[in-house]
Structures are given as C-alpha cells and as structure tokens.
Amino acid sequence: MNKCAIILAAGQGKRIKSNLPKVLHKVCGKEMVNHVIDTMRAADINDVNVIIGKGAELVKERTTEKKVSYSLQAEQLGTGHAVKCAKDFLNGKSGIVVIFTGDAPLIKNETVANLVDTHIKESNKATLLTSIIENPTGYGRIIRKDNSVEKIVEHKDCNEHEIKVNEINAGMYCFDIKSLVNALDKLSNDNAQGEYYLTDVIGILKSEGEKVGAMVTEFEETIGVNSRSELAVAEKILRDRINKKHMDNGVTIIDPASTYIGIDVEIGQDTIIYPNNVIEGDTLIGEDCILYPNSRIENGKIGNSVSIQSSVIVDSSVGNETTVGPFAYIRPESTIGNNVKIGDFVEIKKASIGNDTKVSHLTYIGDAEVGTGCNFGCGTVVVNYDGKKKYKTIVGNNAFIGCNTNLVSPVEVEDNAYIAAGSTITKKVPNGSLAIARAKQTNIEGWVSRKGQK
Ligand code: UD1
Ligand code: CA
C-alpha cells in the first residue's frame, strides 16, 4: 500500500506568543515539526509534505535537511483548509495519507506504525488517534454512537453533553486518499471559529456510510503544544524518555531531572553523567566517559574514556582518554586527539591537537595544527589575527612551548623545538632548536635606594 504524509505547520500559534512560528519551537533541542517529520520517516513513510503559511520561508529553511515537499497555505482558514492546500501533492495518488499536526512532538514511531496497520487491517477509510483525559479543555471531542466514532466536535462548538466527553482527538489521522479528497470538498466553515475543520471530515465520511475507526493511545504521546507551559510539559516528558533510554542502554545518569540530552544523541555503555550537563545536536559520546557537572556539548564526537568537566564543546571531536576542563572552550572545527589534556581556561578554535599533547592551562590556540607529544606552558597565545585576516600556525611533534609564549601567525615551530618562556615568536623555529625571543635581563644594582623607594 502506498503511503505518504501531510504535516500541518502553517499556523502562527497565537497562544504561544512568539515571533517564531510555533512549530519551530524546540523540544529537547529539535524543532517540533522536525520531530514529527523524523517520526514519519521512522515509521517508514518517506513521501512527506509540510503545509507552510505563517513564517513559511523560515519553516522551509529549518526543515531543508529533511528533504520534504511543501504546500503553501497563504491564509490560515483552518486545518481542513490546510489539507486542501496539499491538493497538488495528493493529486494522482492513491493509498494512504497520514496527517499529523506539527505541534505534537511526542508521538512514538511505533504508534504511527500501529495506526497505519489498524487502518489497513480494519479496511477503514479513516482511522484516528484518540486519548482519554481528565481535563479535555481545548481539544476536539470524540462523539461515539453504539461505541463507534460518529464525529468530532471542537471544544468551542460543543453542546452541554459533548463538552463532558473526555475522549479527545489527538489530531493524528490515517485516511484513504480518495475518500479524504472527496470529503474535503464538502467542508463548510459554519462553526464557532469560522474555520474549515479537518475534524469535520470524520462526520462527513461517517454520514456517507464509510468505515471510520479509532485507536486509543496514551495521552502523553498526543499532547499538542499550544503555549509555553505546554512546551515545558512536552520537554519534560521527552527528556524523561530520552534519559530512560540511555539508562536502559547502560549509561549512568546521576540525576535525570537535571540532565538535558537531545533526542539524536548517542552515548556508549558505562559512561557516567553528573548533573547539569546539556548534550545537544548530533553528539556521539563513547564508552566509559565521565561527564562531571556543568558542560555543554553540541555536535561533539567524543571518544571512549574521556573526562569532561565544566566545559563547552561545539562542532568538534575529542579522542580517546583525553581530559577536557574544567573551564575549557573547544570551538567549532577542532579536532583533539587521543590522550590529550585540555586543561583549565584553555580555548581551542579551528585547530587540531595531536595525540599525547598537553595544553594544561590559560592558553589560546586558534587556526592551528599541533602535532603529537607537545607541551604548552601556561599562558600561551596563538596570535592568529592581525585585525584584518586570520593566519595559521603549525607546531610539529614533541615541541615544548614555554610559558607565556606568543606564536604570531603565520608561523611554524618544527619537531622537537623548544621555546623559552616569555618569547614572542614571529619566525620559524627549526627542528630541535631553542628559540628565545625576549629582551635579556639587566639588573641595576642599588637602584631602589638611589630612587629613594625605600
Ligand atoms: C486541533 C484539532 C482538535 C484536536 C487538536 C489536537 C481541528 C479543527 N482541531 O485543534 O480536534 O483535539 O488539534 O492537538 O483540527 N494549522 C494550519 N493551518 C491552519 C490552522 C492550523 O496549518 O489554518 C496547523 C497549525 O500550525 C498546527 C496544527 O495545524 O500545527 C493544529 O492547529 P491548532 O490551531 O493548534 O489546532 P487545535 O486548536 O489545537
Ligand atoms: Ca494544537
């Protein structure tokens, strides 16, 4: 059976009070609409169309990596109207279309797959996801007759009986494409909000004698985010799920309530994570690592047995058995080797640091290639910027850079070279030699008493 999906993401989301379109707000580091797209893909639905309207360009930009197609809903006249705008996408297609709202990021892959299976098994024309909750305020209500779904009534359109129903519409459906397209033509906007409701399609199909089914699922999965408080609720639920997954895989998380791991992060067994770590993006952390408190890692590739403490690592890799921090900042495009020490108050930017090199304290290395087995003394600065352009510094293997050295780029320090403390290096230091680039010390005897300083 042919399958495709439509994701509704054209609304501004008035209730979230934001300049950013609602579906671009992030939950556990990923935009809500991208969560939904990824879930579709995980459920093996590859042909995905996103309905865009409010902030269309931005939504497009933030979803480009996902390789979806788009339909424009220039004016937001309701969820039914939104699906009508995908006419070109549906044109000529047969089979199943799955329709989800872009503001419900918690749905599980297997639930989408189950919805599709149920739809096929029961030969339905429409199958919807519902859930049962204590306080259904704001949600569409599922109205059943003789136990089978009759129609959906929006909260604002409910009569006194309907409003008490606590089975709600999750806003997630599976339709036979032909039946959906026919029913969409019959929608009216004669309701409390003056909108074309997608939910009315259910009643229309039912009144035409078509088979409609429903699948009840956990409310938690179906939460639609309309406000900032609901955003925080979704964040917490997903965070708990992610942390549990890692713990089940053998990662120790000392305090899950204060550990923030993005949904796409992978972590190896026996890694230990202390509180207040934020691990985001496409980060991969190896086995047996220790993440002491207070680090942020975004798109980091971290090897095995690495220790990181109170540091920031962005778009960079760190090799096995390396230690980072406390208070180190590894900026984008850096590659740190194995068994390296990046100590306190060290900043690395767009630099590679070879295996077994020690950069222990108070040092800046930017736009540089550093070999293996080097030692950087305290307070080394790579002077990579002349106010207009950035230049490159190259340090070979086993070099010893004395404390408080300036390496004025572009410059090269060859293998086994030594640099005396306090030097400002502007010329190449040849293999195996010592460079001293500082004024010779002069002692002026008796100066203090002559000056009357004492
Ligand atoms: C919708 C359902 C409701 C259900 C709830 C579940 C309708 C009429 N109501 O209500 O039954 O219980 O979801 O969360 O469908 N959108 C567009 N174009 C529009 C309007 C909305 O693309 O013209 C998009 C929004 O960006 C959003 C989604 O559709 O992602 C849902 O819209 P929203 O206004 O949040 O609908 P609800 O009132 O929550
Ligand atoms: Ca909603």
UniProtKB/TrEMBL annotation:
Which reaction does this enzyme catalyse, per its entry?
Answer: alpha-D-glucosamine 1-phosphate + acetyl-CoA = N-acetyl-alpha-D-glucosamine 1-phosphate + CoA + H(+); N-acetyl-alpha-D-glucosamine 1-phosphate + UTP + H(+) = UDP-N-acetyl-alpha-D-glucosamine + diphosphate
Q: Pathway it acts in? A: Nucleotide-sugar biosynthesis; UDP-N-acetyl-alpha-D-glucosamine biosynthesis; N-acetyl-alpha-D-glucosamine 1-phosphate from alpha-D-glucosamine 6-phosphate (route II): step 2/2; Bacterial outer membrane biogenesis; LPS lipid A biosynthesis; Nucleotide-sugar biosynthesis; UDP-N-acetyl-alpha-D-glucosamine biosynthesis; UDP-N-acetyl-alpha-D-glucosamine from N-acetyl-alpha-D-glucosamine 1-phosphate: step 1/1
Q: Which residues lie within the region annotated Pyrophosphorylase? A: 1-228
In terms of Gene3D superfamilies, this protein maps to: Hexapeptide repeat proteins (2.160.10.10), Spore Coat Polysaccharide Biosynthesis Protein SpsA, Chain A (3.90.550.10)
Record's GO cellular component terms: cytoplasm; membrane
Region called N-acetyltransferase, residue ranges: 250-454
Binding-site residues for Mg(2+), renumbered to this chain: D103, N226
The region called Linker is annotated at: 229-249
- Where acetyl-CoA is bound, by residue? N384, Y385, A421, R438
Residues of the Nucleotidyl transferase domain: 5-218
Name of this protein: Bifunctional protein GlmU
Q: Which gene encodes it?
A: glmU
